[in-house]
Design a protein that fits this description.
GO terms for molecular function: fatty acid 2-hydroxylase activity; iron ion binding. By secondary structure, the protein is an all-alpha fold. The protein has nine helices and no strands.
Length: 203
């Protein structure tokens, strides 16, 4: 028993200390506590909703519907990016980072993008949605970012905590299968799009 505990502890240490970059600066920059990007996205989303309420004449019901649309659209974007970018045939820095995550799934400092990338991502999304949706962009991006924060939370807890003994364990089961077979189960927030596009694990 004691020997098994030592082996388990050693494996856990390997998970936490594995390096993606030899350059110490790049290695430091790619790490992030999961709470940082989650906080950035939630605070930004709340700020966008407050700003929209104070500066636009869009009805509350319309704002709510656009917000929920942003939530749903994110789940599709999440699925497509995960499948077509993180698991693309061609190599990229994004695919390299995701491959590292598959190799070391327990490394807590690599469950989310670094803070600077979180901020840059939020800015780029705002400019893009602002160009397309005008004043509707505030509530749409708020929903998109809240869904993004939800994705980060779900992804983190499925890697850090043991699955609960209730219906919520579907998230753990769905994502765990993906780590054993990266050709299926690309959705993290929801398995919905895997069912739609036929990439859910075949029983």
């Amino acid at each position: 028993m004691e020997e098994n505990l030592k082996v388990s502890s050693k494996l856990e240490d390997q998970q936490q200390t594995a390096k993606m970059f030899e350059n110490p600066i790049l290695e430091r920059l790619r790490k992030s506590h999961i709470a940082v990007p989650i906080s950035i996205f939630i605070i930004t989303a709340a700020g966008l909703l407050v700003y929209a309420a104070r500066t636009t004449d869009i009805p509350v019901l319309t704002t709510t519907l656009i917000f929920l649309t942003g939530v749903v659209v994110f789940t599709l974007v999440e699925y497509v990016v995960h499948k077509e970018v993180y698991h693309a045939k061609s190599e990229s820095i994004l695919k390299q980072g995701h491959t590292f995550h598959h190799d070391y799934p327990k490394q807590k400092s690599f469950l989310a993008m670094p803070p600077i990338m979180s901020i840059v991502t939020a800015i780029i999304l705002f400019l893009l949605f602002r160009l397309i949706l005008n004043d509707y962009s505030f509530s749409f991006l708020a929903g998109f970012l809240m869904s993004y924060a939800g994705y980060l939370i779900i992804h983190a807890i499925t890697h850090i905590y043991k699955p609960p003994k209730n219906f919520l364990k579907i998230w753990w089961k769905h994502h765990l299968v993906h780590h054993y077979n990266d050709k299926v189960n690309f959705g993290v927030t929801s398995p919905f799009w895997d069912h739609v596009f036929g990439t859910v694990e075949k029983k």
